[in-house]
Amino acid sequence: MNWVGFVRLIKSIYGKKLPDLEWIEKQGLLAVKIGQTFALRIDFLNEETCAHLSRLYSSNTKIPPEKVNSLINYYSPAGWRDNFEYIEEKPLASASVGQVHRARLKTGEEVVVKLVKKDFKKSFKKDVESLKSFLKTAIFFYPKLDKVADPLGILKNIEKYTLDELNLLNEIAHRDILEEIKSDNMARHDLSRLKFPKVYKELSNENILVSEFIEGETFDKLLSEGRLDYENLLELFHIHGFYVFNVGTFHGDIHPGNIILKGNDMYFVDTGALGLVGTKIKKGLFRFMENLSFYNYGECARSLNEMADVEISGEKYDDYREKFMKLYADFTGKSVSQVSLTRKMMDTIKLGVNSGMVFEKGMYPIIKSLMYLDGMVLKCNPNAVLMEDMRQFIGELKGQED
């Protein structure tokens, strides 16, 4: 994707019509990742556009069957196929960087084989460098662009996140980190419903990942068919809240396609992205959410300021606090269908920044998580008053703060 394609992409995102997802996919991996990033920007895009762009997380061009076998031959060492009874050509799922195929080992275990799409890394890096040059030129002539939108910062975030995804060894390492956190904290926090698929490390490498097949259904499928129990969704909040607020290390891409329900067990899959947040943010954001759940807006305003790397005071703070109270004037007792938590959080961060606060980059993956979770609740139980329902976990999470 060159700069002309980038300009056309941005115009399509901000246009009156919904963006053409098929066209975006044809522009390459960088275009898809930019589209996915804008799907989270409900603070300045309408909800319909964001929801439409969010389809880029699960609806991507599939590798043709004839190429699947050539990919396996290209990526796997000699004798690798001898471990399998069969590998299905038709994919179970497809995402922006690869896709998953069901298979069976000769030892009888049902597994899935994840493959990275060939040459994506090379073309992605080339597109990123081209776009960086264009943005540097644009910022030189319009320096305000850097302060208002931080396009290079966003691009660097996309670059790092995507390159991590393109190395499947990172997915294995992140899975192990999350499982170790669970193991270390089971005595003080109930994480018994959380599970991780077994990984066959001896059969995996940078471009191929072999893991246990989970005979369950994704939250995405259950939501689309209206079959996800709201209590299961609240338990996801409970588990994810522990990782975010108590540990500061969490699944960085917790969209509904990456959560599989099998009986009473909840499996985290596709752990290529790992969210990390500093102590100041995780503690401050927890205090913010705690106060928000009880509608203590004055304390919410203070918590937001205290979690900023650069805080404000005096008249600036008074003016900010007054605007904060007005922002949340319509929030008390409202359901997720009446007031979007994601939009509120986006508007809240925007208010803080416009008032003079400066936040660490770790805020982005948390807002991303909130958008996913908020969207799941909207599909599952639109009449839910989410913040009040979260009160049942607040005491437990508060008791486990480091």
What is the molecular shape? globular
Average pLDDT, to the nearest integer? 88
Order of helices and strands: HHHHHEEEEHHHHEEEHHEEEEHHHHHHH
How many distinct folded domains? 2
- Which structural class fits the helix and strand makeup? alpha+beta
Family: Belongs to the protein kinase superfamily. ADCK protein kinase family.
GO molecular function: ATP binding; protein kinase activity
InterPro entries: ABC1_dom (IPR004147), Kinase-like_dom_sf (IPR011009), Prot_kinase_dom (IPR000719), UbiB_kinase (IPR050154)
Pfam family, one: ABC1
Write structural notes for this entry.
There is one protein chain. The chain has 402 residues and is of the alpha+beta class. The protein has 2 domains: 3-60 and 120-165, no CATH class; 215-402, no CATH class. The protein is 53% helix and 11% strand. It is built from 18 helices and 11 strands. It has helices at residues 3-14, 21-26, 29-38, 47-53, 65-75, 120-141, 144-149, 151-165, 168-185, 219-224, 230-247, 279-293, 297-306, 314-327, 341-354, 363-380, 386-389, 391-399; strands at residues 84-87, 93-94, 98-105, 110-116, 194-195, 208-212, 217-218, 249-251, 259-262, 265-268, 274-276. Strands 1, 2, 3, 4 and 6 form a 5-stranded antiparallel beta sheet that branches. Strands 5-10-9-7 form a 4-stranded mixed beta sheet. The protein has a two-stranded antiparallel sheet with strand order 8-11. Strand 9 (259-262) and strand 10 form a beta hairpin. Helix 12 (279-293) runs antiparallel to helix 13 (297-306), helix 14 (314-327) packs antiparallel against helix 15 and helix 15 (341-354) packs antiparallel against helix 16. Residues 86-402 form the Protein kinase domain. InterPro entries: ABC1_dom, Kinase-like_dom_sf, Prot_kinase_dom, UbiB_kinase. GO terms for molecular function: ATP binding; protein kinase activity. Pfam families: ABC1. Belongs to the protein kinase superfamily. ADCK protein kinase family.
